[in-house]
Amino acid sequence: MDVIGIKNLIQEGEGTNIEFKEAHTELNKNVFETICAFLNRNGGHIILGVDDNGKIKGIVKSAVQGIIDKLVTSGNNPQKLNPTHYLTPQIIEVDEKIIIYLYIPVSSQVHNTSGKTFDRNEDGDFEITNHQNQLQQLYLRKTDTYSENKIYKYIRYDDFRNDLIDRARKTALVQRSRHPWGSMNNEELLKSARLYRKDYNSDEEGYTLASVLLFGKDELIHNILPTYKTDAIVRIINTDRYDDREEVRTNLIESYDKLMAFIAKHLSDPFYLDGDQRISVRDRIFREIIANTLIHREYLNAFPAKLIIEKANVIIENWNRPFHHGYIEPATFYTHPKNPVILEVFKQIGRADELGSGVRNVFRYGKIYGKYEPEFIEHDIFKTIVYYSRFDVGKNVGKNVGKNVGKKETLNHRQIGILNMIVSGNELTAKEIKSGIEMSEKTIERDLAKLKENGFIEYKGSKRTGFYVITKLGRKMISTS
Fold this sequence. Notes:
Elements: H1 3-12, E1 18-21, H2 31-40, E2 44-48, H3 61-75, E3 81-82, E4 90-94, E5 97-104, E6 112-113, E7 118-121, E8 124-127, H4 132-145, E9 151-152, H5 162-175, H6 186-192, E10 196-198, E11 205-208, H7 209-215, H8 218-224, E12 230-234, E13 244-248, H9 252-266, E14 273-274, E15 277-278, H10 281-295, E16 305-309, E17 313-319, E18 326-327, H11 340-348, H12 357-370, E19 375-378, E20 381-387, H13 413-425, H14 430-436, H15 441-453, E21 457-460, E22 467-470, H16 472-480
Parallel strand pairs: 1-2, 12-16
Antiparallel strand pairs: 2-5, 3-6, 4-5, 7-8, 9-11, 10-11, 12-13, 14-15, 16-17, 17-20, 18-19, 19-20, 21-22
Helix pairs in contact: 9-10, 10-12, 13-16
């Protein structure tokens, strides 16, 4: 979170998802009630150093480290917060005053603090420990919403890969040298990561679907999810079938590695300076996208996830349980985790960022990589489109593959469709074109701008009543596509 984002939250004021705590010299006693309530409800933002009226008071500099240590230690103490949750406080200076920011995601489990369970509404935190109906509804909501919580009571510890658990521990320690996983054995780590749970409605307990996907042996994964896979395809020369293909059917940690390697094999990584530092724009983009498609997928659905590299773009699809339908815009979206436990493990091993920041990075670097902004479309099938039309695809596909990619005459199937629409209608207004294609207005505007810039269409008439017509070059493009 940056300073502008913090100021926007403060200006919005306290509500269901925002809470201020003054914490001038020490941590407020009731802060874990809010953390518990946010975990149990819809997640939220906690800002320490701001009073109830939204006035920035700041935290005494000498008290900052003590407050952070108490937050992190208490978050990992099951007597204070159960199940535990790894808190990542962020120190931010606003108007020359120090504040501490915490983002609390929604959890797929029911949490309590010091033996008390809290929920959240517009008026703040409220205790439901002795309210059986509300408590039961909370458990039912968590169970019904998150399939990663599904318990398999006959799974045993021997069904997991110790080498993967060891790898996760080492990676987490690289991220944070004092990470609590460092002092745990493998079984304790699995339970600490909330991969073993008890269902208080059915009284069943055991390892969960999330544990299977993250650390299970391949035979265990295939037995429980026989249709699970991610289909990675290159379709550039042979568009009817494919030029290269890999079926990824292993655990999520190694699936990430395999899919990143597939991208590196087939997509170029152009030189780019971010300030005075050279970075991999390709890896910045696909690190987030591949992590997202693994973290936020609905795994109980048989729909196979796909990663398809085409001439000018990459399309990623996975089955989804949507919270809303339509296009995600970077300035206005609010992300809901589909598998919070899997997300948390990926965060601990450095494979995922806080919710929202990863998507914003994709938008930031996506336009640099492919001229056009990426597209995120949320329906039952979540689709991501990344354009890479400025650059050639990797040499491993074949000598002639990508020969024209990045040149102005390369169009995608949607842009060819627009040319065909204009030919069929003789002349069409922008409104008519937008109404005939199920894409966002911004996307169609970008397509029209590209077609006009490259001489395939012309705009005639006034700004309000004008229309588009196809040019000779546009007709030639249709005939050769």
